[in-house]
UniProtKB/TrEMBL annotation, chain A:
GO terms for biological process: carbohydrate transport. Keywords: ATP-binding, Nucleotide-binding, Transport. It comes from the Bacteria. It is a peripheral membrane protein. Its main location: membrane. The gene is ugpC. Pfam families: ABC_tran (PF00005), OB_MalK (PF17912). The keyword Membrane does not apply. GO terms for molecular function: ABC-type transporter activity; ATP binding; ATP hydrolysis activity. SMART domains: AAA. This is sn-glycerol-3-phosphate ABC transporter ATP-binding protein UgpC. GO terms for cellular component: ATP-binding cassette (ABC) transporter complex, substrate-binding subunit-containing. It is found in: Cell inner membrane.
Amino acid sequence: MAPVSLRGLGKSYDGQEAVRGIDLEIAEHEFVVLVGPSGCGKSTTLRMIAGLETISSGELRIGDRVVNALPPGERDVAMVFQNYALYPHMTVGQNIAFGLRRRNLSRQQVREAVADAARLLEIEPLLKRRPGALSGGQRQRVAMGRAIVRRPKVFLFDEPLSNLDARLRTQMRTEIKRLHQEVPTTTIYVTHDQVEAMTMADRVVVMKDGAIEQVGPPLEVYRNPRTRFVAEFIGSPAMNFFDGRLVAEGDGLAFRMDAGPALTIPPERRAAYGPIVGEKLTLGLRPEALAIVPRGETPHLAATTRLVEPLGVETLVYFDAPGASGCARLSPDRAPRAGEPIALGLDPAMMHLIRPDTGAVVPWN
Amino acid sequence: MNKLSGAALRQSPTRRASPLSGPLPWLLPVLLMIGVFYLYPILDALRLAFTNASLIGREETYTTRSILAMLANPALGTVLRNTAVFTGASVIGQVLLGLAIALLVVRGERNRLPGMLALRTIVLTAWVIPGVANGIIWSMLFNEAPYGAINSALRLLDIPPVAWLSNPANAMISTIIANVWQGTAFSMIVLYAAIKSIDPVLYEAAAVDGARPWERLWFITLPQLRAALIVNAILVTIQTLNTFDAIISLTGGGPGRATEVLSLFTYNTVFYSYDLAGGSALSMLMLLISLGLACVYALFLPRPEAIR
């Protein structure tokens, strides 16, 4: 177990920069999730930490050692691959033992360690089977067993759940969290699924185009995204955006949508927003910041229901409004029918103002 | 689920009614081809072995005397020993050398070394050369006259000339070298394809597990190649057992019987001694040896579960 520190880490292929300037300090025992769309460099970053890709620039430390030049086997990391990468010709037991045998442990020690790992992952009955005879979920457990058994300094997970069906994915998600609680080890987990990132991480690292967009605890990133990209990527369904302008209104401020109502800015944000009065901005509101209000109440957004998705505990209502379309998260008993006109109230306390040119969210707190 | 639908299909009356139902019509073309071009000649050779047939057409009568005479032939022991040495050494040499070159080429390609395609092509050209031409090429290389290529190269290094072909002990080694040179390309291509199909992630997993390069070869590459190695060994063995064109043009089986293998002995029996019945008996023996060896190899094929 050790902290991991990435300082200005970069990777380029034939002059093409795939990853650049990654600065990240990962504490001992921390569970960090790298999340982003495909091609954002998250897997490349993970593979650089594992030693499977050479590091083009920057410095990587595991514990107090710079490991840039060390081969993977000497970095004391364990990795769970997307397609598990189990050795097909070995039994489950041999698969789990393989890494230990390379480290010159005695047969007795290896046998005990394998048995411990198998017990922890509840795969004892499978030890004599070969990977070909296992289900996807069982292979996943074996791959994790192979990682855990070595008690490495760092666990690396490369989209380990993406080959599983939805139910198994949820189950393994909690399983991985449970394991991390039982065997607290520094963990770096790569996924494109923001739900996995939100549910598992101590800290989320949102990446885009080879660079870090934002780092923080999941709820912090959810509540205070620093860019439009993060606001859009984290949270499902995605945030709604409305174009408009910030204007002075009486002794306060208001956001006037290009096609829609004006939204009074809460008093605590006035100071922060003061300097940008008059500018064209984009308003970001999460689906839960929208609610159906009586038609007479002002201000409201007049919209038409396009699609209704009842999920049981809540109902997602996709709507078309003048100049924008979006999604509202409503309680099931308040949900309209498709095609029905609705009046949507907007909660200014949950608003984000985004500069359309840079995509940066205007900070206020 | 699968079992259920399979049973349902088998019981389906509409499938029964079709005139093309059952496997036989689909297998018929293959059965015909094999029957005419393989099975009939084999059966005829088997029949001939039990006659006193000769190439100078005299009346055939059925007898076991030809087989017994052939089995009692004092040359047979030498020929079988030659065959075993020639085949064994050739198979081992071709498989090992083919594997080594395939590993080199794959490694070179992975490191984007230039010239890998050229290397592959050069190795393959040896394989395209007909056996007789191969024999002639090597007889020039091994030539013991002062202009013989290898010996004149050795002379430049102040090494005395070697009696490549005239010394019975060397002749077998020379024949094996010539045969391995030609046959290696086949193993190389088979194993190259097999190595390329190994999931590269396995090597990454092994690297993270701390396996050193030779451990990756031993614990990942070789087990993953097991099926390819065995199939390759079967094919190379059968090819080598049947090789006589290269030998006939290189040494003609000599000096004495030093390089006379079973296929050449069979050829000589039929076409020099006109003993069609004895040759047929020998060809049956060859068939039995090939089948026996193939069965032994097949025992070592991995179970399908382990390949997945």
